[in-house]
Design goal:
Blueprint: H1 2-14, E1 26-37, E2 40-49, E3 57-62, H2 76-87, E4 91-96, H3 105-121, H4 123-126, E5 133-138, H5 140-151, E6 172-176, E7 209-212, E8 217-220, H6 223-232, E9 246-251, H7 260-272, E10 276-281, H8 294-306
Parallel strand pairs: 3-4, 3-5, 5-6, 6-9, 9-10
Antiparallel strand pairs: 1-2, 2-4, 7-8
Helix pairs in contact: 2-8, 3-5
Length: 309
């Protein structure tokens, strides 16, 4: 699993891309703590345009294989991804979540939820409109983005923590090659995390355990519970008429996340009457090769759905 993940992250760092926004065009606030988990800080970086801010925000989920490395924020691919929205006046939040193998997909989802609540709660401080927040990411980051777009919630008005009272919903999603249905992954009834599944190398992300009062230990959940959980963390499960408009860019030669995943959720969006678009890149695999032309497309989507009319 590590070799697959490192290859993916190495690909992020080595792609030749045009230069992102110059350092003097924005200010960067590093390691803002948006939450804590077992005593460990959950952090995000804030990139604020020095001039021309449009009052909208774009959240960039820093995640590959549900592994979130803050150093990736400095890679060419991520700098180009958020550089385009920055040039257009968006305030960008690069969110780091708790990573596998220590933490699972449900926990990563909870972290991104928390980050959106935090950003919305502090919207006035960041000079952004709490009702104009978009989200982006690639691969696992795309999956987590779509979960926010389909399963964000209004918050708990009775929560003691004021951040938890804020909504975790977003108003637009734009992402690259995201997993969307773990129970029908590459074909009907194909479980992504089965020993022979396409995501078998990432099985630890679904190694969920529960406290057993008899053994007094954390025991692995049953196979039945695991599949039910896989359904709950699949974005296709949650698509409804109130889901955020979504753009997906996906290569038709992707062998890790088949384009079938994008097609499945696009069908759900159509059924729900949600604005959604799939951009197919011929011959592209699970990587960002040739993606420089896609970043303006991502920013255009946010312009369409987040800018004030």
């Amino acid at each position: 699993m590590r070799s697959v993940l490192f290859a993916f992250l190495l690909g992020l760092a080595c792609i030749g891309l045009p230069a992102p926004s110059r350092a003097q065009d924005f200010t960067r606030t590093k390691d803002v703590i948006y939450g804590r988990k077992f005593g460990t800080a959950l952090t995000l970086d804030v990139f604020t345009p020095k001039k021309g801010a449009n009052g909208a925000a774009v959240v960039m989920v820093v995640s590959g294989g549900w592994f979130s490395d803050p150093n990736s924020i400095n890679s060419p691919i991520f700098r180009q991804l958020f550089g385009e929205p920055l040039k257009r006046g968006y305030t960008v939040f690069a969110v780091v979540h708790a990573s596998q193998p220590r933490f699972t997909i449900p926990e990563a989802i909870a972290d991104v939820n928390r980050s959106i609540r935090f950003i919305r709660h502090h919207a006035k401080n960041y000079k952004i409109d709490p009702d104009r927040i978009g989200i982006t990411g690639g691969s696992a980051g795309g999956h987590l983005s779509l979960m926010q777009g389909t399963a964000g919630d209004p918050g708990n008005p009775k929560a003691l923590d004021p951040v938890e009272r804020a909504s975790s919903r977003v108003q637009a999603v734009a992402c690259f090659f995201p997993p969307t249905d773990f129970l029908n992954y590459g074909g009907k009834d194909k479980y992504a995390f089965a020993p022979d599944g396409l995501l078998a190398n990432f099985r630890l992300v679904m190694d969920v355990r529960e406290f057993d009062p008899k053994t007094k230990l954390l025991e692995r959940i049953s196979a039945t519970k695991a599949r039910d959980l896989a359904r709950k963390v699949s974005p296709v499960t949650h698509v409804n008429a109130k889901s955020a408009p979504a753009l997906i860019i996906h290569g038709d030669a992707d062998k890790l996340v088949p384009i079938q995943q994008a097609e499945l959720i696009m069908a759900r969006y159509k059924e729900a009457g949600v604005a959604a678009e799939l951009v197919v890149r011929k011959g592209r695999g699970h990587d960002f090769n040739g993606a420089a032309k896609d970043f303006p497309v991502i920013a255009d989507w946010f312009d369409k759905h987040l800018k004030k009319k």
